[in-house]
Amino acid sequence: MDFNFNPEQTQFADALKRWIARDYSFEARRAIVHSEAGVSSAAWATLAELGMTALPVPEAQGGFSGSAVDMLVVMQELGRGLVVEPYFATVLGAEFLRLGGKHAGLLEQVASGELTLACALGERQSRHDMFDITTRAMPDGDGYLLNGAKKVVLHGAQAGMLVVSARISGEQRGEDGISLFVVPLDAVGLRSVDYRTLDGLRAADIVFDNVRVDAGAVIGTPGAGWPILDAGLDYGAGLLCAEAVGAMEAIFDATLDYLKTRQQFGAPIGKFQALQHRMADMYIHLEQARSMALLAAVRLGSSDAAERRRAVSAAKYRINQAARFIGQQAVQLHGGMGVTDELPAAHYFKRLASIELTLGDADHHLARFIAQPGFTDETEGAAA
Amino acid sequence: MDLNYSDEDLAFRSEVRAFLAAQLPPDLQHKVRSHLRLSKEDSVRWHKILAAQGWVAPGWPVEFGGPGWTPTQRHVFEEECARAGTPQIMPFGVNMVAPVIMAFGSPEQKAYYLPRILSCEDWWCQGYSEPGAGSDLASLKTTAVRGTDSEGEHYIVNGQKTWTTLAQHADMIFCLVRTDTGVRKQEGISFLLIDMHSPGITVRPIIMLDEDHEVNEVFFDNVRVPIANLVGQENRGWTYAKYLLGHERTGIAAVGRSKRELAFLKGLARRESKNGKPLIADPLFAAKLANLEIELMALEMTVLRVLSKADKAPGPEASVLKVRGTEIQQMLTELMVEAVGPMALPFDPAYLEGANEHSVFDDDDAAPLASYYFNYRKTSIYGGSNEIQRNIITQMILGL
Questions:
Q1: What ipTM was reported for this prediction?
Q2: pLDDT band for position A381 (50/70/90)?
Q3: How many CA atoms lie within 13 A of B282 on its CB side?
Q4: What kind of architecture, by CATH, is found in domain A227-371?
Q5: Contact between chains at B1 and A271 (C-beta distance less than 8 A)
Q6: Contact residues for A303 (Cβ-Cβ < 8 A; gap 6+)
Q7: A148 Cβ contact list (under 8 Å, min separation 6)
Q8: Closest approach of chain B CAs to the CA of A83, in angstroms?
Q9: Does domain A7-116 have CATH number 3.90.226.10?
Q10: Mean pLDDT computed over A166-195
């Protein structure tokens, strides 16, 4: 057993830390958030230069075949830096392409940083069930016509290509008949409305009105997209867990610092036991969250899908809880300053709240954990 | 990053598992798994079986009779014992006084006491808490006054200890006593080894809320203690006590035992029914159960992370493990009681003490659960209450 990060992972982390400290200060980030584009092409170029876009891409497509643990290291740093660039969306899209086993050319473009991706999966009624799809893909010659609407597509309007889930057949909430398609953002019949999300990122609502794609746009096998979607969503949830840990570390450190410096009643407020014990509870949450992010990252490499689902849902559930507790308490311990726009604390809090709502909230993942083999039935799972 | 055990550790696990399968007496295993109360004889029997194998003191250095295991092997051993359902080795001798004697005791003390601890010839208890010294342990008042008589130099001890676990069985007690009242309270404390059979010692039972006699008050009335029973230097006892507190590390989380208890709880929840379906299929109960299981998964990872840094000195991280570990243990007992519902109501002390027949019709496994639930309220209070652990986290880790 070995809990250490390897030298390459430490190098990635250090490189990101240096970049964020130099170029991605809180004020620089604020300017990006409020800019027209909402993202920074310079930041993206640097991420590519640092090898971050190549990291998750297979070596055969010019990447580094980075593991989920490698990605955990990166996402923690981006979480700590509160980076708003379309990295998560792109990496998640690339994972779908990788799982589909085709689209080598697109993966090469992702690796080099030329192409950003976004994932158009959720619809108005889907909530956290990504199999709940009404968008249709009707056969049309050697291709398909896409019709439907996707909601809150993270960085949807900043992407070059979209990974879109649509239904070739089956019921609205069925796992059969789902396909994933890769669609250029400038396809005819595609309209998007770009907006800011509560945490300063960008998302888009996207309408597909007879958007024609050819057969080559299908990721994996037509109609059998669910296993890819399910596995990719776990990968994405794992990434978010890691990002949340980074954000929680940062907001925790900021709060600790505040407790040591803010004076009331003639003493630093960190001398008061009510606040000390709150901080100790936040620390315990953080430790448990770190443990679960690691467990998820390691199990994402497992060939056993049930074991992967079990670990990822456990992690996302636990980290959502930690994110809410740490986020809320950090704001509380900052007092009035915690509810201003001026300090980073509120911005971390908002990012953590967003992560809670992305790729499955606590209830969703608790129910999914319960539904895995070994919980309700007699065959004991790994915890026995 | 690699969460797999090495081949050596896996082979070790198999060895431990095979030993337990062959050597753990079924009647003891039954008592442990069924939450029945263990007698002194039960504990001593299991202690001697492990001692014969050379495994009773996993944390001891080889020179004193330890098995020379790595921290990971010790973890695996604890986990396997918990999984099988062995009685716990009483910590007071093996894990508490022994490390202090090894670190600070005289050669004579080491030569005399350590083998007797290994063989269970002496049953030890801990004389720390007093009526006026609980979380504020350093304010203890039991005095030891130095003197000389015809038999040589000695201390005369007067005062009272309390919450003394299983003192009714004990041959020896290690005590913190005040030897200097004129200095800062931490600086006037000494660490004494006292024969429980000495004249002037009285043990009075304290019956707890589960009606069990687990703890006692111990009174000292002019008890003569030979000077040779002082550990280390006079007035340095607080330092030794702190060393002892830091010695207990990852085991404090009791992850292995909680995993066994989770499996037991799930068994109950599959057997009990609600709305015509197994209780485990009830969304409200399942949510509580899953929440608990996930918290335990996280704690296990946290323990392994702390363990991986075990070459460093025992750290305040143990406080995190104590808080979460005991909270999980308590949640398990709460849900066990909830799972059996009204069947937790019959209270039958004779059955808990080992009488073969339960005085109500069946439901043997439900009988001890309320008692277990009540008993385990102690876990967040003993060993430094969970509030004290939070103080340790804030001071030692967060620097507040």
A1: 0.95
A2: very low
A3: 18
A4: Up-down Bundle (1.20)
A5: no
A6: none
A7: A123, A133, A134, A135, A136, A166, A207, A208
A8: 25
A9: no
A10: 97
> Is A366 in Cβ contact with B320 (below 8 Å)?
no
Active site residue B248: yes
Q: What is the pLDDT of residue A377?
A: 86
Please determine, for residue B31, whether its predicted confidence score (pLDDT) is greater than 80.
yes
Q: How far is A260 from chain B (nearest CA, A)?
A: 7
| pLDDT score recorded for residue B312 | 59
Q: For residue A266, what are the contacts with CB-CB under 8 A and spacing of at least 6?
A: none
Mean pLDDT of B312-316: 64
| Positive/negative CA dihedral, B239, B243, B244, B249 | positive
pTM: 0.95
Contact across the interface for A276 and B394, Cβ inside 8 Å: yes
Which pLDDT score, from 0 to 100, does residue A382 have?
Answer: 42
Q: What pLDDT was estimated at residue A383?
A: 42
Size of interface A-B (CB pairs under 8 A): 135
Domains in chain B (CATH in brackets) are 7-89 (no CATH), 124-240 (2.40.110.10), 249-397 (1.20.140.10)
B301: nearest CB among A280, A292, A376: A292
- Is it the case that residue B301 has pLDDT exceeding 90? yes
Question: A291 and B72 in contact by Cβ < 8 A?
Answer: no
- The stretch B304-331 carries a mean pLDDT of 85
Single out the residue of B177, B304, B159 nearest to residue B231, CA to CA: B177
Catalytic residue among B78, B79, B80, B248: B248
Which chain B residue has the Cα nearest residue A5? B1
Contact B400/A260, CB-based, under 8 Å? yes
CA A80 to chain centroid, in Å, comes to 14
Considering only the top CATH level, what class is A119-223? mainly beta
Residue A269: its chain B contacts at CB < 8 A? none
Q: Give ranges for CATH 1.20.140.10 in chain A.
A: 227-371
* Residue to substitute from A9, A258, A283, interface B, most B β-carbons within 10 A: A283
Whether pLDDT at A312 is above 80: yes
